[in-house]
Amino acid sequence: MNKVWIIVRKEWAEVFKNRFVLFTVAFLPIIFTALPLIMLYATRNSADVSGLSSADMPSGFTQLCGDQMNAAECSQYFIISQFMLLFMIMPLAIPVTIASYSIVGEKSTRTLEPVLATPITTVELLAGKGLAAILPAIGATWLGFVVFAVGARMLSASPVVLSRLADALWLTAIFVVGPLLSIAAVSVAVMVSSRANDPRVAEQLSMLVILPLLGVFFGQITGLFFINDRLILWMAAVLLVIDAGLVALATHLFQRETILTRWK
Amino acid sequence: MIKTDSLTKQFNDVVAVDRLSLEVNSGEVFGFLGPNGAGKTTTIRMLTALIAPTSGSAVVAGFELGKEDTQIRRVVGILTESPGLYDRLSAERNLDFFARLYEVEDVPGQVERYLRMLELWDRRQEAVAQFSKGMRQKLAIARALLHEPQILFLDEPTSGLDPEAARLVRDFIAELRSEGRTIFMCTHNLDEADRLCDRIAVFNQHILALDTPSALRRSVYARTVVFHLRGIHPGFVERIENFPFVRSVETMDGKLVVGLDEPEENNPAIVRALVEMGADIQFVGELRRSLEDVYLRLVNPQDHDTDDSK
Fold first, then answer.
1. Domain around B275
2. Contact residues, chain A, for B97 at CB < 8 Å
3. The total number of structural domains that make up chain A
């Protein structure tokens, strides 16, 4: 069996026995999926949002709606758009929790030395730990998105708004930017975990990686900018570069000798 | 099985291991004794290819350190200072994980074999968190043996264990010894080293002495014979001192304590001399030096300069 997969299986068996980790991994997707559905349910009748006009929305958003949407549909799409970022916070926050508990947990129980004494390479070990954190996050995000899309189909009266959930902007956000964010989050968690001795401290410090995304969230709410096709592609490209740098840095820090002699 | 040549490890300005040169033979139990911070764990970590030496070279089980590290890790087993087990996983799951990392062919078979051998089979499904220290240590030893390593490295195998658990672990090491396994063992327990090791190196950054336990005793301390006499005349000491083979003489609590290289050869002459001088000899016996005496003298020579020998 591939050693990366052996590590992944062990990580899941170990980490998911931790109730806090299990709670975080389950709780975030449930809340972040339910929240937009509740909003959608609350605004499902066009009458609820018909009072909104283009003047109520940040300037520029109506351009995103195009000619195919009427004012009510555009308003509903505006509301839904705010929740796109929730589906990007999920792949960022979940792996941070898993990786923090996984790595700092190994430090505190001194289990890394026997693992490093086996014929596993550092890259295999790091890849295993990374995937063990990333895969549940991506899985939960995608599952949440599917539930959201199905729920939206049932709750929304407008097929035009629904069709937007399958356009390039959303698909790129969920299926490209999400995983890239997960990789960044895990890399940061590995770096922070190398210095922290308490998984909660490591988790809290690593969560700072969410701040730029929250900036985007508030930027969009306040109408400073809107995530459109071009911006999401830029985000993906920039994240790709950042990920490459972070992975290299995390791998550099995750060396046998460093772990055994400096990780205290 | 192990050959090191001037193996050195330096952490910034601190020299942890200084030009270590030694050979460990196949089937030998080699004891590595030294105070805390002597560099014992660093040595084990270097020899198991966990950390790289700063300079020097070593060949472990035929593989060159630094060039064939993965092969070395494949053929050595290590019991780390702390058992390092996954508390939330069962004993069986812990071993299964490591057996797969070591690419063991028959994973379930080997896991069962060692769980049974160490009498943990009945509790294989329990989370390791529920295990006692002794059981954890046994499980960690099982983990180190799963892939049938050519060399087993044990770092303080009985450290922190209660006497009963320590005995269990010691008995198991003795069993491994009888199987002809090559074992490199760091320990603070000198009695354990004395009983289990074929050869011992006393180490503090570098080797202070290396030999069999009995030869170490002889090399550090002369053998000491105690003559219990009914009254000691001052002339006795002077007379005994004149023998060329006597290394030291002193009186202690009405006894004459004599340091000799070959008591079997020298005792009759001393007894004759004492009888001729009118001494009433009640009893003659040898004072055995413990390995602890030898160790302390080697590690802290300044504290033992006034000892009764040499």
1. 222-288
2. 6, 10
3. 1
